[in-house]
Amino acid sequence: MIKYLEIRNNQFTSVPSDTKETKWLIVEKPTKEEVNQLVDTYNLPADFVTGILDDEENSRFEGIHQKKLEEPALMLLQYPRSSVSPSGYNQINTFPFALVLTTDGKIITITNEPVEFLDNFLLDTASEIQEPIQESMLLHIAWKIAISYNTFLKDLIKQTNQLEGELKVSTENKQLYQMMDIQKSLVYFESALTANLEVLNTLYKAELFQSPEIHLPHLHDVLVETKQGLTSTEIQLKLVDKISDTFSAIVSNNLNNVMKILTSLTIVLTIPTIMGGIFGMNVKLPFANREDAFFWIFILTTSLCIFVIRRLKKRNLL
């Protein structure tokens, strides 16, 4: 799918086809015909478009050496997207996001999965997009990607804190599965943010920026936000590793406590069974001729149970 956008009245407006006024092309899950169309129309290397079809594609920058765009340039970053893990819980994966700068002043964004922050981006005013459009759009989208990582990180931290609150009573495996999915998300984040940071750092050396006094401060903000996300990810990953180990130990300990209580209750409940078995024998026994024999047997059994319960509690076994 290809969407063509122009800037009208400080808003991004969708148009049916490509024109000279078109500034932005949003390409999502391109078909073979659309790939050929983009390659032929804008003289793009085929891997600029097809690279995003591989979810494992690494972040990179091509065409950075140019002082002026005489051939298309590519910046490929990793962006986060929420999904459901095989264990059935929320997991954040990372996917490639290609930004292609064409020689006729357009920017093409290409993804193989829906991108939530692009929908919000279209609703925002375009008045903040300065000339040249390509440079400004490049940095604005990189900023949105950096912000989306930190937003997801806050959600992961919230989930981790919630799981910590369940430690006291947990004897099940579902919390372990959730913790595993959080760990996987953080591992993806660490790898993607490290690669993104390397690509963004190369922009400082790029000669593409025609107005560095305008765009380099914005690039600095993007780098700061990306570094913050990477630092938070590394810290949270270490904490989750420690929490996971503690979680496993607590789950085992809670299970041991449950088994201890059940074993102690079994001992207590064995007393009435033994007493019933003894006085149910068809032989001469104490109290056998008394009319109130059941009452005294009941008192004796109850007293023994209470005595055993107190002894078990005193030894912290119940």
TrEMBL record:
Q: What is this protein called?
A: Magnesium transporter CorA
- The regions listed as transmembrane in this protein's record are 261-281, 293-312
Give the UniProt keywords, A-Z: Membrane, Transmembrane, Transmembrane helix
Q: Which GO terms describe its cellular component?
A: membrane
The family line of this record is: Belongs to the CorA metal ion transporter (MIT) (TC 1.A.35) family.
Keyword flag Acyltransferase: no
Task: Name the Pfam families on file.
Answer: CorA
Q: Which InterPro entries match?
A: CorA-like, CorA_cytoplasmic_dom, CorA_TM1_TM2, MgTranspt_CorA/ZnTranspt_ZntB
Entry membrane topology: Multi-pass membrane protein
Q: Where in the cell is it found?
A: Membrane
GO MF term (any one):
metal ion transmembrane transporter activity
